[in-house]
Amino acid sequence: MTKILMTGLTVVFTATIALAAEKPVPPPALPVITKESLAKMKVEDLYKNLCAACHGVKLEGALAPSFLDGVWKHGSTDKEIAQTILKGNISLGMVPWEGTLTGDQIRSLIIFIREKEKEALIKGITFPKPEPGKVTKTKLANYKIETVAEGLTLPWSLAFLPDGRKLVTERGGSLRVITKNDKLLPDPVADTPKVVVHGQGGLLEVAPHPNYKKNGWIYLAIADGTKKKVEGKKKPEVKTLTAIVRGRIKDSRWVDTESIWKADMKFYDGSGAHFGSRIVFDKGYIYFIVGERGALMEVQDLANPKGKIFRLHDDGRVPADNPKFDNPKALPGIYTYGHRNAQGLARDPRSGAIYSTEHGPRGGDELNLIEPGRNYGWPVITWGMNYNGTPLGKTHQKGMEQPVHFWVPSIATCGLDFYTGRKFPKWKNDLFVGALKQEEIRRLRIRNGKVTQEEIVLKGLGRVRDVRSGPDGFLYVTLNKPGSVLRLVPAK
């Protein structure tokens, strides 16, 4: 049996080996690991050095149980697992790591174990991957899939016009029109606002005004700014940030452009990451996301627009009843803050509540209920860790909101909508979540502010960028790769 003995600030591994002749054999020489060296380790190395001897190199179990079978002898919640790692169980040979591992390191180990556990548990499970002409069965509804449009280049957002046409943005800067007969027009809308195509930025969200029939307004979220060549440098100089504009389409041209929201240029930067951009309307207000752009504590700074959700009147004016903050330099229009790469925004048709999904780092993707003036914690709190496997932040902090639901491992949330149609009555008012990384659509049922059901209803067709409940009662899915728009229709 392998044992681990702790002496002062060092962790020393020794082993006793019983041979058939029962003759004492000196233990093999194993490295001494100091507390200082532990502090520098990534989570994979922590596991390899501290856990693998008992639980197996691949977490499959050895002297101690497997981490991959979903069976937990001493409690399966994160809190219970953390307590077991912290306090150990000497009678069973489980070493207590209190005083040796930090809380962040313990949290990283739990995330790592959860990642591997989930990977093992889904092996062999068949998920609904639709095939043309065939019925796909899910728990509550069966459907067939239809192709609405193909040949798009990195489509980002889908919206519906009252006359049956659909609008699709391509991140490269084109606003495309699909006719009511599902024909993708060959030419994009002309003269749309100039965008900076950089990293994840470009032409992003499109959202017609709720009263579009009367006013014709269409809103766009764009990567605004400049991109220019600099003599002597291989890469162009880029300064960009999310902005919101609106305009109208007349004779296939974009006209009447108005700026709804734009930050001071001092906040623009060259990062290619995390622009946010999703838009929701409610009672004359527009809600939209400005991504955190890879920033950290700037997200907590109310004088900085990054990592915020804004609420304005639909013409860009700041509502008098918006949240008031203690910081006198707080930017007008901020509704909530502390968000990391939020890319989903949707309104619950029953209550009017606004929900958002945001990417965690490695683990910790979140579904949040968006309430005025609240701080959602990034980067101070998170249920994830750094991409390199090192610890990051806490899970709780006074004055910071907990997610309604979170995912470990990450699913890379993107695209979010409540189903409001009648074609799938058993899906009514359920929330549909796009997952880029997993190429999935997940159905969540929310009751009394809690997720009571979660189901993968589509998987493996391509990189999901958007999901929308159509006015015709069907569910629409936009894929980046291959660039297409699909429709889910009921089937027996």
Describe this structure in words.
The chain is mainly beta and 492 residues long. The protein folds into 2 domains: 121 residues, Cytochrome c-like domain (Cytochrome Bc1 Complex, Chain D, domain 2, Orthogonal Bundle); 265 residues, Neuraminidase (6 Propeller), CATH 2.120.10.30. The protein has 6 helices and 27 strands. β25 and β26 form a beta hairpin. α2 crosses α5 and α4 packs across α5. It is globular.
Short structural summary:
By secondary structure, the protein is mainly beta. About 10% of the residues lie in helices and about 35% in strands.
Task: Name its key features.
492 residues, mainly beta, Cytochrome Bc1 Complex, Chain D, domain 2, Neuraminidase, 2 domains, five-stranded antiparallel sheet, four-stranded antiparallel sheet, 27 strands, 35% strand, globular, disordered N terminus
